[in-house]
Design brief:
62% helix, mainly alpha, 5 helices, 96 residues
Length: 96
């Protein structure tokens, strides 16, 4: 997988769609000023990518441990549950 970066300077002067290939071509031809102009386009793309990564890290992420919320019954419900637990359930069977 190769990275393709578009550059108008590379397209216009070097006839290369890919800025990286255009940069290499300009360096090989000793066109250093042109290579620097293409390199600026390449660096702009990398800076945008780093900015996106940094922004994503700054956003608070919720870990699975933070998602767990302890549910505590209200005091009224807790006393009713205890009363119901103390009562024995009777099973009535009818004899035929």
């Amino acid at each position: 997988m190769s990275l393709i970066i578009n550059s108008e300077v590379s397209k216009q002067y070097l006839l290369e769609e890919d800025a990286i290939a255009g940069f290499k071509k300009a360096v090989n031809n000793n066109q250093l000023q042109l290579a620097m102009r293409v390199l600026v386009d390449i660096l702009d793309v990398f800076v945008e990518g780093f900015d996106l990564l940094i922004d994503a890290e700054e956003e608070p992420s919720i870990t699975p441990a933070e998602k767990i919320v302890e549910v505590v019954p209200a005091p009224e419900l807790a006393t009713e549950d205890k009363k119901n637990a103390n009562k024995k359930t009777e099973v009535k069977t009818e004899e035929k």
